[in-house]
């Protein structure tokens, strides 16, 4: 698989990205790229610079230096809206959903479908509910009623709604910020399956996590961050889950701990 | 999206994770359900106890419909704002101040009454805009910001009244109004012919002088229905309505998907000020005067009606239809107690209990509706 993937152009590529916040060096030379039909897992422990990197990719922060290419062309985002217009959608951990509102209303929040009646424009709720139901069905969540509140959905289902919304509105690159961090096993597998499905449609996915198992289950390649630097990018064929775990830990402490406890952390 | 061959393989079978909603549960998730149930109870109660007191004769109905209409006008604004996640405690003071903005220019500056009314609406919208702007910019709770407005506006109402009229009432507006169209627009009676016909047909009573016991539908009732209807349509059927739910439900999430939260909230504060001014204009045209104590405590009545109608104090949930039924319960009980001859002092006790019941009920419904723990 990796050969066919490598032949395609990178949707996003950054080289030697540096980001300073005053005296704090958050990113100190990060390079990575994601291609169409590929899940790139961004691994790193707390403080490795994952959040800063995705906020830079999604237009929240401007890089201090380094190059940022979209479809091979240099680009500079000034606002998150610019990134969205370029097809880069970010699903943050808070998911940008209103629990008390219906799934259909949430799905179209900020991009409401309108129906013109004489001089007035009304919300096309029938269309919104139909699309929300269809899109959820594609994921395997069968909603008899998309007017039910998002609050009634499980964490995994909410995560899937947020991803489906980004895909529906034309994302080419999907940045998922720790989508499985608060989920149980069954919920996690549901989200990972959906991520794989999105990838199979030809989107590029950047999957941020600090859970190596989740990453290994769905990723095609892995970029490991440590202290604001990339330690390297590895194709799935070239690295084992243990090697990835050790690399991510940055030093051998975790390895010792694992040996002490008699298992993998 | 395009056809996707992988869907079939990835789609999961139906399993126990899927949350299905029964029809009953869906009904329970309607915010106005509690208020409608309460309205039925209140009508049954007074139907039994106030039977034969004239409460349900035409003039009796007019009586409690007028109270309901007054409250519906301001409760609509309050409900919209509450769904949008904010409060406006300055509604009552706004009623008093808007009355002065009509009466003082008309009586003391010699402005035509139409100009004074337009001036009052513009002034009120500006005050609503400032309320909203301060809330949005400072991120202070709207409770505090509009509590300040409550005192500022009430103080200005009293001070201006004393300054111009040397007392707390500015009267004589009718002498200046003449036969201007704004008088019937805000205090006229609609469909007089219909009521004469109803009286002649014996459906409604007649006064000793041969006039029907009710001469028409008061303009305020029509204003109330129009405002509630428009409010309902905007909230439930427009993009702006979706933005109101989003802004009140989770302002941060709404901002992240491009909803102009600040603009939505400012507009909603202007809407409550507009509603208060409609209320005030009706009163000024009806009584021919503006008084410094008009609208005292009305902000709480508006909030009570909205809460009984299912609005959550935390925002993001509620309906205008519910607020209307909240106002209806309020009007029927207030007037019903008078008709049954029960001591009116008990009304407030009832109101407090009703509010508490409504809040508890709403909380329960919300948990059922959203699966929140």
UniProtKB/TrEMBL annotation, chain A:
PROSITE patterns: ABC_TRANSPORTER_1 (PS00211), ABC_TRANSPORTER_2 (PS50893). Residues 12-252 form the ABC transporter domain. It comes from the Bacteria. The keyword Mitochondrion does not apply. Signal peptide: none annotated. This is ABC transporter ATP-binding protein. Coiled coil: none annotated. Belongs to the ABC transporter superfamily. Keywords: ATP-binding, Nucleotide-binding. One of its GO terms (molecular function) is ATP binding. The keyword tRNA-binding does not apply.
């Amino acid at each position: 698989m990796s050969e066919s993937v490598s032949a395609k152009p990178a949707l996003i590529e950054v080289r030697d990205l540096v980001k300073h916040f005053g005296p704090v060096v958050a990113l100190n030379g990060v390079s990575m790229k994601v291609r169409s039909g590929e899940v790139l897992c961004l691994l790193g422990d707390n403080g490795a610079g994952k959040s800063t990197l995705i906020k830079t990719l999604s237009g929240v922060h401007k890089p201090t230096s380094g190059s940022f290419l979209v479809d091979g062309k240099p680009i500079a985002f000034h606002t998150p809206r610019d990134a969205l217009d370029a097809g880069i959608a970010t699903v943050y951990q808070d998911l940008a959903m209103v629990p008390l509102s219906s799934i259909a209303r949430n799905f179209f929040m900020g991009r409401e479908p309108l129906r013109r009646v004489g001089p007035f424009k009304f919300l096309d709720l029938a269309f919104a509910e139909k699309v929300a139901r269809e899109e959820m069905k594609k994921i395997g969540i069968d909603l008899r009623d998309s007017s039910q509140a998002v609050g009634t959905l499980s964490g995994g289902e909410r995560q899937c709604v947020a991803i489906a919304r980004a895909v529906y509105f034309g994302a080419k690159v999907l940045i998922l910020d720790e989508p499985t961090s608060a989920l149980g096993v069954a919920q996690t597998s549901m989200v990972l399956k959906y991520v794989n499905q999105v990838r199979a449609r030809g989107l590029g996915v950047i999957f941020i996590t600090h859970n190596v198992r989740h990453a290994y289950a769905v990723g095609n390649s892995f970029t490991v961050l440590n202290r604001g630097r990339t330690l390297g990018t590895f194709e799935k064929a070239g690295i084992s889950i243990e090697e990835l775990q050790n690399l991510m830990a940055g030093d051998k402490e975790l390895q010792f701990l694992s040996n002490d406890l008699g298992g993998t952390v | 999206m395009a056809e996707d061959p992988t869907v079939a393989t990835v789609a999961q079978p139906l399993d126990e994770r899927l949350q299905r909603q029964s029809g009953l549960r869906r009904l329970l998730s309607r915010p106005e359900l509690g208020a409608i149930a309460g309205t039925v109870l209140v009508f049954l109660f007074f139907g039994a106890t106030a039977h034969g007191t004239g409460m349900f004769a035409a003039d009796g109905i007019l009586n409690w419909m007028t109270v309901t209409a007054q409250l519906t006008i301001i409760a609509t604004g309050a409900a919209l704002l509450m769904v949008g996640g904010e409060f406006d405690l300055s509604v009552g003071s706004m009623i008093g101040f808007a009355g002065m903005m009509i009466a003082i220019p008309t009586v003391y500056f010699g402005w035509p009454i139409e100009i004074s009314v337009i001036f009052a609406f513009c002034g009120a919208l500006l005050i609503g805009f400032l309320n909203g702007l301060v809330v949005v910019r400072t991120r202070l709770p709207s409770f505090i910001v509009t509590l300040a407005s409550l005192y500022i506006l009430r103080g200005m109402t009293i001070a201006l009244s004393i300054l111009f009229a040397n007392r707390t009432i500015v009267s004589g507006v009718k002498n200046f109004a003449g036969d201007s169209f704004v008088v019937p627009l805000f205090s006229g009676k609609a469909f007089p012919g219909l009521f004469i016909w109803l009286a002649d047909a014996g459906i409604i009573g007649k006064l000793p002088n041969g006039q029907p016991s009710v001469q028409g539908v008061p303009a305020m009732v029509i204003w109330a229905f129009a405002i509630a209807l428009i409010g309902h349509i905007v909230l439930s059927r427009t993009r702006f309505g979706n933005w109101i739910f989003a802004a009140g439900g989770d302002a941060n999430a709404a901002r992240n998907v491009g909803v102009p939260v600040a603009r939505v909230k400012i507009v909603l504060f202007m809407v409550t000020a507009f509603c208060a001014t409609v209320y005030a204009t009706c009163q000024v045209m009806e009584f021919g005067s503006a008084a410094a104590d008009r609208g005292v405590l009305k902000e709480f009545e508006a909030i009570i009606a909205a809460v009984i109608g299912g609005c959550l104090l935390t925002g993001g949930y509620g309906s205008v239809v519910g607020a209307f039924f909240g106002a209806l319960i309020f009007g029927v009980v207030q007037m019903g107690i008078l008709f049954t001859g029960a001591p009116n002092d008990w009304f407030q006790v009832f109101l407090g209990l009703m509010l508490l019941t409504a809040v508890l009920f709403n909380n329960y419904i919300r948990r059922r509706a959203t699966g929140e723990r």
